Give the backbone structure.
Amino acid sequence: MTFGTNNSDRAGRMLGDLGLTLAMPAEILEARAIAASTVGPNVATPMALQAIQDQTLCSTFIYRGAQADITGVICIIPLSAAAQTTLDAGEFDGLTPPLDLAARPGEPVIAVYGWGMAGTTFRGRAIAMAGVLCIHREIFSTVPLFSRAATRGGERTLMGRMGGQPVPGPGGLVVCPAWTQQRKAA
């Protein structure tokens, strides 16, 4: 098994190069509202988003458009070894993820959960997509990315562009192999 490290500073720098910034508490509320309006009501609570952000220091990132309003958001959870069993069983709880499964800065990461991405403008969606690809292909390139598709576009991205495959078990969990693993196979 290959491990990465929750390097929150590196994540902030690399996503910052795309125009994404780490969300502050009030911004998390607004980002969640955007996600709920674009992908539906089954989105993690603001308390869950904030708790994971506080623990990982690299979970929710936002993009501000030309009018300084939030037009793009991505949320991830770098996962510790404690998450392996629930991932293997296809039972990871993406709505209320147990806090003890999220890796703290400096801790080993065995996978990343793509918690969500949304955008209210073409540019916001494009930046969010670029951020997700940066997370998968650069920041956490040595570990798999797990997620669930909330929209048809999300399903196309996970299953097509990122090479995802369904994880056996309930709940529609998908795994995208580590990018370094995909590159070696190509």
